Amino acid sequence: MSLLLKNISLPLESFALGMDVEVRGRVTAVFGPSGAGKTSLLDLIAGLRRAPSAFIQLDDRVLTDTAKHFSVPTHQRGIGYVPQDLALFPHLSVRQNLLYGCKPGGAAGRLFSFDHVIEILEIQPLTSRGVTELSGGEKQRVALARALLASPRLLLLDEPLASLDAPLKAKIIPYLTRIRDEFRIPMLCVTHDRSEALALADEIIVLVNGQVLQTGPVLDVFNRPASADVAAIAGVETLQAGVITDSHEGLATVKIHGATLTALAPATGTREVFVCIRGEDVILQRDAAASSVRNRLPARIMALRPEGALVRVELDAGFPLFALVTRPACAELALREGEPVTALIKTPAIHLVPR
Amino acid sequence: MTLGEWQIVWFTAWVSALSTLVILPFGLALAWALAWRDWPGKSIVETLVSLPLVMPPVATGLILLKLFGRRGAIGGFLHDRLNFDVIFTWRAVLLALSVMSLPLLVRSARVAFEEVNPRLEQIARTLGSGGWRVFFTITVPLAARGIVAGMILAFARALGEFGATIMVAGNIPGKTSTLSLTIFQDVQIGQDSSAFRLLGVSVVLAFAAVWFSEFLLRRKRKTR
Amino acid sequence: MTSERTKDFKPGVFRKAYHLCGRLVPIILKPAADRKIKLETNQPGAADVRASGGILQKLNDMKKTLVCALLLFTVARIQAAEISVFAAASLTDSLKEIAAGYEKTSGDKITFNFAASSTLARQIEEGAPADIFFSADEAKMDGLEKKGLIDTATRKSRLGNALVVVVTADSPLQIRSAGDLTNAAVKQIALADPKAVPAGIYAQAWLTRQQLWPAIEPKIVPTENVRAALAAVESGNVEAGVVYKTDAGISKKVKVAYEVPAGDAPAISYPMAMVKESSQPDAAKKFLNYLDSKEAGDIFKKFGFILRD
C-alpha cells in the first residue's frame, strides 16, 4: 500500500499543517504531542476536510488534487475511520452499526466476512445489544469491526487507546495486532503515546506543530532521534528489544543481548518486549557496592556528550545504555571514555512494552 | 353537536393534517439548511421563514391573497394556464395553514438538527453513505423527537388558524369552513351555543396537541 | 337657527365662568394668601411687600385665569358633542359626505362604525357605545327593538336601494337575467353572507323567488359585508357578485351587468334610530333630524339611494 501525501498545506488555529511524505508500511503511526494537527490530517485523508493545498493518492487512485480542483467525496474513498470518540450510532443496535457500511449484495462484495470479523474481535455476544449498554473496551472493538466490515483499503485510527486505562489498553492491543496480521489492512494510527506507537507500528511519522520532523522505522526514530525535539517527544534514551525469560511474583527477568535485568512484569503474558529506560533513571557508580537496586550492570563508557548542565553518557552494558548525569557528578566521579563503571537501574524504572 | 358541526371539525382536522404533511419536506429542507454553517443569504432566509410567526396573520393572508388571486403572480399563472383556482377554495385553506405553521416546524427541526453530533454524520460517510443516505439513516432518526414535536406544534397552529384563512378562503359553508371561522361567524349571527360547543372542541384538540408535544420533548431530554 | 345660537352662547358662558372664577379663587386660595402674608411680615423688607399688595393681586389674577380656562374647556367640551353612528357598510360614502357638512355647521363630531348590519346589531347588544344605529334592513332594527335597546320614537325608514349583479369592468360575461347566473361560465358569485348580512339576505330572497337558489347556492362565496363582496369582484377572484346599486356606483373596477327589477326582489329599506343608552341623546336626535332633511336627502340621491319620503 502506498499513500502519497504531497503539498499538504492546511492552516490550523496556531500553526499550519504541512507535509510531503509517502507512507508505505503496514502500520504507520503519526506520532506527536496533542494538538499537533494529527486529527486534522486524518480528516484530510478521509475527505472530511478540505485544505487550500493538498495532493493525496492512495495506491493508484488520486483522492485529492487541489491544483485540479478534484476531490473524491468521502463516501467513495473506501477509507475506514475509527475516531477517538468512536462515534457509534446510538439509535442503532450493535448489529445495525456493524452492518451499516456493508455494501448490499451480500458476502460477495465484502473483503472480510461478517462472521470472521466478529470472531476475531470477539464481539459475537454483543450483536443484539444496544450501543449504550457496552463497556469502553467493547465499544472500541465494535467501532473497529464496523470500520472493517465496510471493506476499507486503508484504516485510519485516531488515538485508539487514549481513552482506555492501562489494563484495557493491554487488552485491546492484541486485537489491533490481529487486525494487522489477519486482515492485512494498512493502518494509519495517530497517537501521542510512545507505547502505542511501539506496540503497533512499523513506521512512524513524527509530527510536531504541523511539521514532519522525522519519518522511518519506529526503533530507528526512537533510538536515533534526528533532533532534540524528536528526542524530547520520544522521551526515551534507551530503547532495546528484549525477551522475558521468567516472570515471578510480579517481577520479570528480561534478557537484552546477554544482559539481564529485573523489571516489573507487564500485564499481559507476552515474552517479546521493548525495554525502555530513561537516561535520568540510570545511576552511575564507581564500584559495585551493595544497594537496594536490583539491576547492577557492569558497563564501559563509550562517549560523553555535554548537554547544558547535564552530560549524556553513552555506555556499553552488553547493549547500548544511556545515562544522564550532572556535570559536577561527572567531574566528581572523574568519568572518562573507556572507563568501567557500574550502571544502576531501579526495577520500576524499566518500562516493558509488549511487541 | 350537530352533524354539520362534526363535519366542520373533520374538515379542519384533515386539512390541518394535510398541511403538516405538505410542509414536512420544505420544512425539513429549510431547517437542515439553516442548521448548517453560514452561507450567503442565510440571515435573509431565516427572517423570511420567521415572518409569518411575527406578522399579523391577516397581513400574511393579504400577501397570499395578492399572490394567489387570479390577477396575482402565481394565481394568475395557475388560472390562465392550468385553469386552477386557489382563492375561495379548500386549497386556499391548505395554503394559509401551511404558510402559518411552517415557521414552527422549521424552528423545532432546526434545533433538533443542530443537536445531532456532526461526527456521526462524518463517520457514516466514511462507511460509504452518500449525502441522502446519511440524512435519512443518521440525521433524521437522531433528530426525530424534535421533528415530531415540531410537526405537532405545526398541526396545532393549523387547527387554530384564522386571520390568513379568512383572507384567502373566506368562510364558505361546506367548502372552507374551519373551526375558528365557524366560531367567529356563529358569534356574529348570535348562535352562541354552537360557538361554545366548537370552542370546547378547539380547546380539547389544542390541549392534546401541545401536551403531547411537550411530552415528547421531555422524553428526549431524559434520554440524554 | 341653531348655528347662530351656539355662536352667541359661548361669549355668555365665558363671562359667567369668569365671574364664577372671581368668586371661587379667593375661597380656594385664601389659605395660601394668608401664609404668604405671614411669611412676608417676618422678613426684612416686609414693609415693601405689604405695600405692594399688587403682587399678590397679580398672582391671584393669574390663578383666576388658569381656573377659568379649565372650566371653560370643560364647558366647551360639554357643549360640542361627539356622537357615534353604527351604520351599514353600504352607507359608507354617502354618510361620510353628509357628516362632513354637518360637523362644520353644528360643531358636533360624528364618528362612524361601518360594518355589516348584523355585526353592528350584535355589537350594540353586547353594549357597544353607539348613539345611532342605521341598518340596511328592518329585521336587524326589529331585533334590537325587541330587546328594548332602541328609542322607538326616533325610528324612521327613509332610504331604499336596488340590487345589481356586478362583474369586473373588463369581463366579457353577459348577465341578462337571474337565470344567466346558473351558466357554467359563472363559477363563483360573491354575496354578503346570506345567513346574516342584509345585502345577502335580500339577494337570497331574490334568487329564491326566481327558484334559482338551489342551483346557485354551491357557487356562492359569502363575504363579511357587502363591500367585501364588491372587493371580491374587483379583485377578479370571482366572476360575479350581487351588491347594492349604490355600491356598484362608487367602484370603477366593476360594471353593472344586470339590475334586479324592483318587483323581483324584496323591498330594501334602511331604518335609522337612536340607541336608548346613548350618552348624547340631544345631539343624536339632532343628527337624526338632519339625516331626515332635504340636504341629506340630496346627498343620498346623489349616491343612488332611493328616497321614500
How does this structure look, described?
In chain A, 23% of the residues lie in helices and 37% in strands. With 355 residues, chain A is an alpha+beta fold. In chain A, the strands form 4 sheets. Chain A has a 6-stranded mixed sheet with strand order 7-8-9-3-10-11, with helices on both faces. Chain A has a 5-stranded antiparallel sheet with strand order 2-1-4-5-6, covered by helices on one side. By secondary structure, chain B is mostly helical. The mean pLDDT of chain B is 90. Chain C has 12 helices and 11 strands. Chain C has helices at 2-42, 46-51, 53-79, 92-106, 117-125, 138-146, 198-209, 213-216, 226-235, 245-250, 281-291, 294-303; strands at 82-88, 109-115, 132-134, 150-160, 163-168, 189-192, 220-223, 240-244, 254-259, 270-275, 306-307. A 6-stranded mixed sheet of chain C has the order 2-1-3-10-4-11. The two termini of chain C are 24 Å apart. Chains in contact: A-B, B-C. At the B-C interface, α9 of B face α5 and β7 of C.
Quick overview of this protein structure:
The complex is a heterotrimer of chains A (355), B (224) and C (309). With 224 residues, chain B is an all-alpha fold. Chain B has helices spanning 3-35, 42-54, 57-68, 73-82, 90-114, 118-126, 131-160, 163-169, 179-188, 192-222.
Query: Which class do the helix and strand fractions of chain A yield?
Result: alpha+beta
Assembly type: heterotrimer
For the largest beta-sheet of chain A, the strand count, sense and barrel status come to: 6 strands, mixed
Derived from helix and strand composition plus strand pairing, the structural class of chain B reads mainly alpha
Helix content of chain B: over 70%
Please bin the fraction of helical residues of chain A. 10-25%
Poorly predicted sequence stretches spanning 5 or more consecutive residues of chain A: none
* Beta-strand percentage range of chain B: under 5%
Give the termini separation of chain B: 45 Å
Major sheet: arrangement of strands of chain A: 7-8-9-3-10-11
Q: Element order, helices and strands of chain A?
A: EEEHEEEEHHHEHEHEEHHEEEEEEEEHEE
Low-confidence stretches of chain B: none
Morphology of chain A: globular
Number of strands of chain B: 0
Number of helices of chain A: 9
The total count of helices of chain B amounts to 10
Strand percentage of chain A lies at 35-45%
The biggest beta sheet of chain B reads: none
The termini of chain A sit apart by 23 Å
Kindly state the mean pLDDT of chain B as a whole number?
90
Number-wise, the strands of chain A total 21
